[in-house]
Amino acid sequence: MYVTGLVVEMSNDQISLVEKLADRTARGKIIWEEHPRKGTFQTPFGEYVVTIEEIELQDEPGLIVIEVTVYNADGIALERFTDTTISSGEKNYYETMTKLYESARRNALGTDKAMKEILMRLDQL
Amino acid sequence: MNVPLNSRRRRRYATQEIEAMDQLTDWAVRNHIGDLASVVGVLKSIVGFAVTIWNVSRSKRAARRAEEAVLEVKRGLNLFNTAVDIAAAMAIMEEIRRLHREGAWPVLPDRYSTLKRHLTTIRKTEISLDDAHRRAILLAIQNLTGMEQEAERAIARDSPMNVPKLNRLVSKDIDRLHEVLIDVRNRIGGRNVQ
Description:
The structure holds two protein chains of two kinds. Chain A has four helices and five strands, in the order H-E-E-E-E-E-H-H-H. Chain A is of the alpha+beta class.
């Protein structure tokens, strides 16, 4: 009973984290950066760092999921979850987390800035 | 009874002394010398007490000034040590960049660990760093953790690493640490020790 409650609470925190990250990223309040690991992006919050990455599940080759990890200042992973672990029958978070991942990637690589500049220069031609 | 001459003389002198004392007492009573002495005594006590308080306060101020001076020296030393640690960390980063180019993967995990220790020391330093500088150190530690894992994976699988990307990240961290170093050095020079 207690364990079930704890799992629900953890899952709620994880969902809140995803929703808030998605919202703040969309509003340009968060700056994402590249991470040494391929296809991984990170952003710091106080003494913690959040990373987001696309991973292929080892037990289900070909299945790509989005994973969010929270690290402490020593680089130790404190929390790790994917869109599949927080999705339930009521709601699937694959789309939300995929959008978040794409926004983080564009933010980290400066895609939007590059596109705006190219379009501006094209308009000047 | 026949009293000797010397004894009579002594008695007369004693009587004269007593009379003189009585006159002095009368004079003191008439002129309120006793009250005056009490007042002087009280005043003297008050002044003495005030002087004692002032001396204690002066000693306290001196002790506080000495304590502040010690703290100031300690803060200055902390700033100096932090500047040394940052410079050492930047030197190791330069070395890591070179080792990446040379593909010296077996020695790199040790360098990452050494650098991580330096950065952790800087992060835990007692001097106040602003948010941007703390973020810079945090991200550098995070990047090192990522690089360490990637290097271990590359060694185990004998797979190539994306050197340009890794060195781009290291360069970014060097630039950020350089800003932190400038700030710390300015504070040492300007004695703006916090």
